[in-house]
Amino acid sequence: MTGDVKSEATLLDRHMPQWHFRERHWVAVSAPREEVLRAAREMTWREAPVARFFLAFTRNKLRADGKVLDDFAMGGDTVLELAEDELLYGGIGSQAGPVRPDRPMHEVFRDYAEPGCTKVGFNMHYAAGVLTTETRIFATDERTRRNFGRYWFLIRIPSGMIRIALLSAIKRRVDGRRKGSDGNPGGRTADQVQDQP
How far apart are CA 118 and CA 155, in angstroms? Predict the structure, then answer.
């Protein structure tokens, strides 16, 4: 089954209107938008040890004091678009490893359709007191979709735990800066959705 956006509400909708697999989490954060997204950009792996633990199996040398979104950005190679209310990253993978197009990722990502690849989009979006993160995966052919579906079955729970840990770390960072906060780490999450193969 393929998910399909009917109207664009986020940058993720614009750059990745279709997907085969998806997860979405959210946390309530009572703070100005600039403060919340600044906390997201400045968050380090030390503040999200659960996320660092799980990603240590797939990423090399995650420094405790390294900024999480800087590592996701890979020197800017995976930045699709940055706005006042949303940070969007994307990448393309194949069995041979990451795909590095000849043109910037933000120019090719939406329409990339080379067989045997998976496209992954990941965002942080803040609106109306709610910070959300959504991850979408699109496979460029049926065989790749089936293969990724088996992989997704194994990783979707730890993947969700990583996203929840990141949201909780951002909320703690924001709350720690604001006087009168009760220091509650939050981490309330809403729906984790998988569009079944």
Answer: 15
